[in-house]
Amino acid sequence: MFILFLVFLNAFFVIAEYSLSRIRRGQLQEMKEQKVDGADTLLHIFDKRNQYISATQIGVTCTSLILGWYGGPLLAKWLRQLPWVQQWMKSAKEADKMLSFEWFPADFEVSTFSVCCAFLILAMLHVVVGELVPRIIVWNSVETVIQYMGKPLRCIYILTYPFVSIAFCLAKGITHLFGIRYTPKEDISRSEEELRQIVSASEQEGELDSAERAMINNVFEFNDTLAREVMIPRQDMICIYVDDSIEEIRQVIQSNHHTRFPLCEEDKDHVLGVLHVRDLYSANLTSDLDIRTLARKTIAVPESMTAVHVLQTLQKQRVHLAVVVDEFGGTVGLVTLEDLLEEIVGEISDEYAPIEIPDFVKVAPGIFDIDADVTLDEVERELSVSFEENEDDTLGGYIFSRLGRKPEEGDELRKQDWLFTVKSMDQFRIERIIAKNIKME
Predict the structure, then answer these.
(1) Domain total of the chain
(2) Beta bridge partners of 415
């Protein structure tokens, strides 16, 4: 019975140690918010987790030593008294002598055999019942287990405090000799790459689906995305001009199905504000109406501003879109709240949105039909091709700058193992590009 008591006591210390190692502060905070008994005590313990883990390790070490020092001889003595052990040993030695195997030395007696059996039995009990089973219990229900550990852990810590303090002083002194400084503050920070690996592992284990994983990865990318990478280019901006007639304004609204339009004077470099469709229909639209009186304020952001800062600016100013300008103050595009959200959650379509062709369409093995507005980073990921550092953000812009003239349909540009061909144009702008892997011909 005493041996079983030591084994279960060892299991208790292992449960306590592994629970402290597995639990996270966020889980304890949630338990506190749910008013779970002992949550405050557990948070206090968590702040000194290293010391409490050391206390449980002292308990594991002591029970293991006592189990080996006292339990081994006790179990061996009990085994020696069993008739079947003595009979088995006698039969084994007779068979060994008869067959001339000489497996058993001449001085190998029942006592020696009992000690060996006792060692194997204790080792199996210690590993299975005292180590593996407790770890499996904690692994599957750490929050449930930790709820019952608050008071026992406090008692263990108080009883072993002198030993823990001495052990910590000795450990810090030894590590100091090797130039290693002990920092009691736990480092719980994780790099972006580590977080990505955690997300990927969570998807593989079924904790996250592919859509959730993609959304989380988009959040990581969002902070590195610039305004010019998510904006609506200048040539695609649908604007209303102060000189437009009422009929022309109605035609623009009905044909584009937007709720907000930039109001411009002369050209797109002179944006006066934003017109909301609701304001237009609420007003008495007559020919003598000054459309500028309906314009709401707008803001301008530099094209080099990160998407996350643009989003924060829109939230702070309580507006839904911003004009993107270059270093000279000229309009290069327009960024909306929807554009920014789509970078995280994916494409948002309504009943009026036209069916869009995907950015990458696989035509055949090694052949892709690509939207010219995709970024060079996307092309690098999809096609395993690398582009040198340059000022171009999109594939279309890269081809345009390399040609050094207005592109025409059929123009070609070779980059490593890929041949890029201009498929279609919209005036001066490249629309679609065919990418062909030359090595697969």
Answers:
(1) 4
(2) 418
Q: Is 202 found in the same domain as 147?
A: no
Instruction: Give the Å distances, CA to CA, from 402 to 92, 326, 406, 423.
Output: 88, 22, 11, 16
Please check whether residues 270 and 395 belong to one and the same domain: no
CATH number at residue 258: 3.10.580.10
Cβ count near 184 (within 10 Å): 11
In 3D, which of 391, 246, 267, 393 has the Cα closest to residue 323? 267
Examine the domain organization and report whether 258 and 314 are in the same domain: yes
Residue 143, by phi and psi: left (phi above 0), alpha (psi -120 to 50) or beta?
alpha
What pLDDT, on a 0 to 100 scale, did the predictor assign at position 167? 82
* Radius of gyration, CA atoms only, the chain: 37
Q: Is residue 252 part of a domain?
A: yes
Q: Which residue has the tokens 């498929």?
A: 423
* DSSP-derived 3-state class of residue 82: coil
211 burial via Cβ count (<10 Å: 0-12, 13-18, 19+) = exposed
* pLDDT at residue 186, rounded to an integer: 54
Contact 303, 225 (CB under 8 A): no
Residues 15 and 126 both lie in one domain: yes
**Domain ranges, residue 406:** 360-440
Residue 353, in any domain of the structure:
no
Rounded distance, CA 98 to CA 104, Å?
12
216 and 230 part of one domain: no
Residue 356 pLDDT: 65
- Of 274, 236, 277, the residue nearest 253 (C-alpha): 277
List C-alpha distances in Å: 216 to 115, 201, 222, 349: 58, 13, 10, 20
Residues 145 and 169 in one domain: yes
Asked if residue 351 is part of any domain, the answer here is no
d(CA 399, CA 390): 12
Around Cβ 73, how many Cβ atoms within 10 Å?
Answer: 13
3-state SS class at 233: strand
Phi, psi of 418 (to 5 degrees): -120, 140
Q: Which residues contact 321 (CB under 8 A, 6 or more apart)?
A: 260, 262, 274, 298, 314, 334, 335, 336, 337
174-216: pLDDT as tens digits: 888 887 776 655 555 667 777 788 888 888 877 788 888 888 8
| 359: pLDDT strictly greater than 70 | yes
CATH classification at residue 421:
3.30.465.10
Residues 339 and 267 in one domain: yes
Backbone angles phi, psi at 32, to 5 degrees: -65, -40
Please tell me the pTM assigned to this model: 0.55
Could you tell me if residue 275 is inside a domain?
A: yes
